[in-house]
Records
---
Amino acid sequence: MSDAFDGVRAQAHAVSVLRRAVAEDRVASGYLFEGPNGVGKERCALALAKTLLGQSAHARIDKGAHPDVRIFRPRDEGARNFPVERLREEVLPYAEFAPFEAKHAFVIFPEADVSFPEHHPEAANALLKTLEEPPDHVKFFFCTTDPEKIPITVLSRCQRFDFAPVEVNSILDRLQFIVDSEGLEAEKEALQLLARRAAGSMRDSQSLLEQLLSFCSGKITVDDVHSMLGTAQSGRLSALSARLGDRDAAGALAAVDSAISEGVDVGQLAEQLLGYFRDMMAALVGCEADFMLHTSANEYAELLEAGQRLGLETNLAVIQILDQSIMRMRHSTHTRTLLEIALVRICQLESLDELAGIVAQLRAGVAANSPRLAATRPAASAPPMPEKKTEKIPDQPAHSPVHESPSIPITSESANSIWKQAIAQIQDMTADYAAFCDRVAISAPNRLVASFKASYTLQKESCEKPERKARIEQALQQVTGQRIHVDFEVRRDEGNAPSRPQPRPSLRQRMRDFEKHPLVKQAIDMFEAEITRIEEPRPE
């Protein structure tokens, strides 16, 4: 006799626990199956029903004709896909009365997060009493991809099983089995591409294979898969990656144009590039070939070599740029332009790995006369430049400092101007924070107080950090020729009286203001409506 759970692939933990529950007669009244689409959640619920109902019920369950196994799917796409009325008319009577034939009845919700959304708990509340005191014969199954959307009142009364994505090798074996069973031929690389494309979903992989069988005739090839999906071949991705590594923006844009002219979808190309550089990142940090998600094992050596030329830090920056561009492309009609902008930005990246090394040297405090920095200076034995004729300048006293700036006195009137001159010489974020200071006063000889508004407390605290304060004082010394100390403060007493929060407008005033909004006026005129209440937006 075949085991009903044999059809559930790659969910060994859930299957073993459910088999043990059946053997020990400890099947729970409610189960929550959570996981991505197409990983066997509904199939596992049906397998448990088949096991409890017996071999004779298998065929009718597969056809959806068994009276004691009911699957309740949402009827439409809306905020409340499972009305309370339907629950009371169809689900509750089915659960409360005795089964038609067997000892058990099964209620399955394949899309529980859609049927019972947390922001519309009416249907879940109507089901709550039955879940709290379930009849002995009824078993509930809630299948979902997002358990956070289901009310906690439902979650707390179910045993939860997390279904993992199906491994690529398991999907590949299943696809090969289907092809062999149908008497067809397919290149192994083509089936591998389908398996990776399914992203852990057994159901999606079989749907793609079914589409492919109707798309092509004869042997299934890699070219057939790329043509159907609108994706680029691996060689095109590696060539485009090489253009980016060489900072060849024109070549990268030409490669995109060539791909589009051959039928490659722009969005798919961007997704493929993101996956390509993800695998490159994994190779660079030491992962083996079997850890690749978007490329084959045959490409591992080439991928690693390309990544070593690019560098890990630059690779991470490329991934971030592509990810941000893909998010923008989903909400834009100018997808090609956005992808091209991303590629040009990538080509403008400096070698971030070299930059990281320079920063490490600076943090280590490399001396100015150290060999590493001295290598960039002209050699001492280099021949002198030809002497130019210049006017004779009187000799300076021997004790005069070479780089001493003329001393500029600071007055109350000039303090703000000197402050602005000083921060203009700072080249990092310190200048941005210091620019929020709008008042500078003299508190003592050679000591200034930089004052910030109360709303700029964060900027004031940033300037107080020792390294930033030192940069500001150094810049002031360059401008004034004097050693200046700076203190920072936040002004709390703006005006003669402390500021009071504005009173909240009355409901009548808010309704009047609301009626003046153009869209609201248009809705009132169109539907002959009136405003009855105003709801505040809920915090996300």
---
Amino acid sequence: MTILKTLELPEVEYITSSEGKPKSVILSIEDWKRITETLKILSSRELMQSIRRAKRQLSSKKELLSL
């Protein structure tokens, strides 16, 4: 199986090195998109505040339902 074929598998990556030190990573475009989308979300202060607020609301609703 070639490197490009194995990259079609989920969460497969190759790390290249030079003189025993990691230099680059090869990964599928889908994994790259997932990583960059996650970084965009994590770097958005407003979006992260909204997510935290929603999690608190869900948590409080679960507590009310369990009573």
